[in-house]
Design a protein that fits this description.
Strand content: 5-15%
Radius of gyration: 24 Å
Largest sheet: 8 strands, mixed
Shape: globular
Helix content: 55-70%
Number of helices: 18
Structural class: alpha+beta
Bound molecules: flavin-adenine dinucleotide
Distance between the termini: 43 Å
Number of strands: 14
């Protein structure tokens, strides 16, 4: 397994030229964010990611977390790495200063988090207890009980699949648990949110007795072996002592604040693993000698010279850069939604973020899986052998399109809550912004820009037609819309990624004409955007046909015909 090297050059480019770091730094509350500070943070986090987290990735995958008598032992080196992580203040990067955090905006924490996830996807802690055996995608079915007792509650029930539900990294674990009070209404309107610590905490902050919550076992899984996935039992004896967050029956609403942040963060996992898989495949393609060059001669050459291997590497690189650009642009909009001086500006940015969350989550994770799979293909047989590490990226990536809401659930959210409910208003604003970029491409010189424009224009038309079709069809044939929801999410991901690649190409061309900066980087940016246009954006019109015409085929068979 090759060690991870943070792609700081591309990160800096996206932050400055596409996500508008300088504008974020002008927002009230973000004044401390200078380009210099961001540069230092990226350098330091890159050192930690490459020097501490990345070397643990493979051995920790082999060792896995181990369960014994209710306790979980994380793999060798994790405890020490976590200590350093906390000592460096990395766990509190985004937290408000009043709670000991550094209060840095999302635009700064996002590339840092991308690095941690590239280096080692299994080092995350913190627990969200939603899932139960009968309640997965459908949280209306949550059964865990919460019974009021004075100023607190007693919690009884079982939660499954809880990431880091138990571990040995920190002295206490705070669980956020969804449960129902005895007289709560049915469904999602009767769910409350509770804080349930592993150890009770005294008024002076001291650690007290063990709470009535235990880890019954951990799962054996396809990937993220070092991350313990726990079955949690609450209230086996007297009931686990928990404290209500906010008001009763509003738990899902509160949890959604955390879930939206988590969905964005899981989208970053797709990007991060794509980056790591690309680095690994690129290194291998430069070293592996096989077959003669098509241009002639007897010498066998590194496989990077063969057009199909190039195609695979370009598809990995182009999609990774597109995912990064979109994610960082959305991170900047989160900061604007929070810090923008006027209410209207905050609301506009929040609407954009709301629309983009299912796209960043669903598209980046599905694409991360594809990219990790292509990474295996670049290795040939060695990709299938664990020794190279390429297989681990695919195994680890596979969970990302499942947890925090499967791709199907993200796509339902996108077509229903985010598009149909508001008559496609925000989506139309986004496609209008894309049309403005298309117009700029029209005035830019050169074949690459002309070809990017042509593919982008057709892709925007495909997106616009789908949005209009969804708005019209949702009310009278909801199943038809949902039948094409995942292909639509993919289309939107491809087009939004293409939007950012087109913007990147325009900036690169401008910088080249000014004769400033890294010529080779800017030239590569334009060529990569051209590849994205020819190989990815061209998929959008075909997806449009699948979405608009394909529903009948999806539901055509009776259940007995399967
Ligand atoms: C390693 C791991 C870690 C996890 N960590 C956590 C955690 O920390 N906390 C936590 O609470 N949970 C966690 N989960 C649970 C995870 O969030 C759920 O597995 C996920 O939400 C899917 O639920 P499910 O497994 O019950 O699948 P189901 O809901 O049974 O879904 C099965 C299939 O049906 C589809 N489906 C279901 N409903 C619909 C619908 N309405 N429309 C279209 N398709 C639908 C799904 O897309 C999927 O393809 C974790 C799971 C794993 C495997």
């Amino acid at each position: 397994m090759s060690e991870y090297k943070a792609p700081i050059r591309d990160m800096q480019f996206v932050l400055k030229e596409l996500a508008g770091l300088d504008d974020i730094a002008k927002l009230p509350g973000c004044e401390e964010v200078t380009a210099e500070l961001v540069g230092q943070i990226l350098e330091e986090s890159a050192k930690f990611a490459s020097g501490v987290l990345s070397p643990l990735n493979k051995p920790a995958d082999e060792e896995g977390s181990k369960w014994e008598n209710g306790e979980v032992r994380t793999p060798k080196g994790f405890k020490e790495a976590y200590k350093q992580f906390v000592a460096g203040g990395w766990n509190a990067l985004q937290a408000p200063a009043e709670y000991g955090g550094q209060d840095l905006p999302k635009i700064v924490s996002t590339p840092v988090i991308e690095m941690w996830k590239s280096a080692n996807l299994s080092t995350w802690t913190g627990t969200m207890n939603l899932t139960e055996p009968q309640a997965g995608s459908d949280l209306a079915l949550v059964k865990t009980r919460a019974v009021r007792e004075g100023d607190h509650y007693r919690i009884y029930g079982q939660k499954i699949f809880i990431t880091y539900g138990e571990h040995d990294l920190a002295e206490n674990i705070v669980h956020m648990v969804l449960a129902r009070t005895p007289d709560a209404p049915e469904g999602v309107r009767g769910i409350s949110l509770f804080v349930v610590p592993k150890f009770l905490v005294g008024k002076d902050g001291s650690r007290g007795a063990r709470n009535d919550v235990k880890c019954a076992s951990i799962e054996h899984k396809l990937g993220i072996h070092a991350s313990p996935t726990a079955v949690m039992i609450y209230g086996e004896k007297d009931g686990a002592l928990g404290h209500l967050v906010g008001e009763e029956n509003r738990g899902l609403e509160y949890m959604f604040i955390m879930m939206n942040a988590a969905r964005f963060a899981v989208g970053l996992e797709g990007l991060a693993l794509a980056e790591r898989a690309y680095q690994q495949a690129l290194g291998y393609a430069k070293e592996r000698i096989q077959s003669r060059d098509l241009s002639g001669g007897d010498k066998v050459v590194p496989i990077i010279r063969h057009p199909d291997v190039r195609r695979m590497l370009m598809s990995m690189k182009a999609q990774t850069e597109a995912m990064r650009a979109l994610a960082y642009v959305v991170a900047a909009a989160m900061d604007e939604a929070h810090h923008y001086p006027d209410k209207e500006g905050r609301a506009r940015n929040q609407a954009f973020v709301d629309l983009m969350i299912p796209i960043v989550k669903g598209w980046s994770t599905e694409t991360g899986i594809d990219v990790a799979s292509t990474g295996i293909q670049v290795h040939g047989g060695m990709g299938f052998i664990e020794e190279t590490g390429a297989a681990q990226y695919l195994r680890d990536a596979r969970i990302t399109s499942i947890y925090e809401g499967t791709t199907g659930i993200q796509a339902n959210d996108l077509v229903g809550r985010k598009i149909a409910r508001e008559g496609g208003a925000t989506a139309k604003e986004v496609t209008n912004a894309m049309r403005a970029v298309e117009a700029q491409l029209g005035s830019a010189a050169g074949d690459d820009m002309a070809e990017i424009r042509a593919a982008f224009s057709a892709a925007i038309t495909a997106a616009e037609e789908c949005v209009s079709w969804i708005v019209v069809t949702y009310g009278n044939d909801i199943k038809a819309v949902h039948a094409g929801a995942v292909p639509f999410l993919k289309l939107m991901g491809i087009v939004c990624g293409g939007w950012q690649m087109a913007r990147a190409a325009l900036v690169a061309q401008r910088r080249l004409s000014e004769g400033k900066g890294d010529k080779s980087f800017y030239e590569a940016k334009i060529k990569t955007a051209r590849f994205y246009a020819d190989h990815l954006l061209t998929q959008a019109p075909a997806l449009r046909n699948t979405i608009v015409r394909g529903a009948a085929g999806v539901m055509a068979l009776a259940e007995e015909q399967f």
